[in-house]
Write a structure and sequence with these properties.
The chain is mainly α. 55% of the residues lie in helices and 2% in strands.
Length: 186
Amino acid sequence: MRLAKRVRPMLGVAFGSKAYVLAVLKDVEDEVHRSATLRFKFPWFDEQVLAEERLAARMRLTSEEKASIDVAAGVLRASVLADPLRFMGGGGSPPSPVDCRVLAHGYVRECIVATDDLSMHKLASEFDIRVWHGYELLKALLNAKAVDTALVKEIYDALEANGDLPASWRAARNIKFSKIFGGAKK
C-alpha cells in the first residue's frame, strides 16, 4: 500500500530477473473498504484508475487453490488464537483473519507476501512463508529499474512527512539504499 500510489503501473507488470508480478488480493481490498481507519489513511485507494488496475491484475484462483487457502488460513488462524500474546511484544497485535488469509495465499501459491506488519512476519516465519518488508519490494523494483533513485528518495520523504515511515524502513534506509542515502553511520 505504501508504494501503490507512487509506483505506476505497479500491478500485473512483470519486473526483475524472476519476473515478479504484484497483485492486491481481494481480501485486502475488502478489508480497506470495511475499515474507516484504512480508508482515511489511503483516501486514494478507490480512485478509478487504481481500482481498474487492481481488477485487471486480480489473482485468479482455481477451486482447489481456494479450498487450500481456506484450509491454510484456518491453520494459521488457529495458531494465532492458540497463543496470541507472542505477537504482542512492542505494542503489536496478533495477525487478523485477513492477515492469515493473505499469508495463506503466499503459502498455497508459493509467492512472496509484501507487508510491513511485524506480526505477519512472525507468523510467516513459523510456517516458512516467504515475506518481504515493503522496503525489500522497493529494493527489488529499484534493482529491476522499475523505479529510479529519485522515486525511492521521494517515497522515503513522503512516508517520513506523513509520519508513516516504519522502523524497518528507517533501519534499512542507509543499508539497503546506501547509494541514495549514504552508508550507515558508525
